[in-house]
Amino acid sequence: MNIGEVIKTTMTDMNIISAITSTVFIILLGFFCRKKGIFSSEVGKILSKVVLSVALPALAFNAFMQDIKSETLKQGMNVLIWGIVIYIILIFVSKPLFMKYKGDEQDTLRVLTIFGSTTFFGTPIVSAIYGPIGVMFSSIFNIGYRIFLYSYGYIKMSGLKMELKNIKTMFLNPIVIATFAGLFIWIFQGYLPQVSVTNAEGVVNQVAFLRIDQTAVWLFKPMTYLAGLASPLAWLSIGATLGEVSFKDAASDKTSWYYSAMKVIVVPVINIVLLAGLTMTHILPVSYEALATIVIMMAAPTATVAAAYAISFDKKPILASNASLISTVLAVVMTPVWIVVLEMISKMGIF
């Protein structure tokens, strides 16, 4: 299959097109509602709280409610390893990327580049395109993200030592709790107490009692509805937030554009190149779904927590705000491009 055929096949795949249009249209709807005053100035914040405290935890937990397979387990462990290694790599790679900047400006740009909005921006898109397997990989990948965000990110921006409150934030976050609970059930389901469950075909199977998708459907169903809110509410929140700020002022900041290009374009490219090498050499092979999940997560705009660090510790807060806005706009534009590129990579058999 040549490049032309790959592009044609990708651009006529209704699943891909639908995922792209869903993302863009709902973000634009949120933007329109805020500009027209249908949404108040608080709607974006409220929706984001609902997504982060309710919808995403349900989405993360539900993703692990599936049978364990040796290949999926292997991929999950590889994603976990890469989710730690890539942040160590970015800590060093971000230095030369912003070599011309000095002091607080460089520190802020580096931290904002290393840590993107993988949970709030990346996971809903991954969920819409790759389903439960993508959400599972994104949840596992985010373990390393949270470790470094609340340790290296905090220390770098504050200049202080690690505090107990950040350790609590790291591990008592609803999404983290749901991820570890789901991960525990998924990995150890063969060793947990088993119960007999009759499926739709009348076949009796033995499953772990904590597999609520089969043993407690009455509980799993409402969690499924809550999980389904993650993507649309996150996209509405992003649109409402974009409608709240002045793009004209932020757009005049050349540094924010340079940063955004590094964050949304260069960082994903680094991941693709390194993972391609590791896969071809069989050092740390990843599947296409794992690669796509990682790339979309790493192409996310500025993480809210990272921007909050800059504002809280007065480390170029205006730059952080401008960079957050520009990177979000660029990420909305580039996400469809990355989805198409990833599909082309898949059809070309690179992964």
From TrEMBL:
Membrane topology designation: Multi-pass membrane protein
Signal peptide: none
Superkingdom classification of source: Bacteria
Pfam family name, one: Mem_trans
Keywords assigned by UniProt, alphabetized: Cell membrane, Membrane, Transmembrane, Transmembrane helix, Transport
Residues spanning the membrane: 16-34, 46-65, 77-97, 109-130, 136-155, 167-188, 223-243, 264-284, 290-311, 323-345
Subcellular location(s) of the protein: Membrane
UniProt keyword Transmembrane, yes or no: yes
Protein name: Malate permease
Organism expressing this protein natively: Vagococcus luciliae
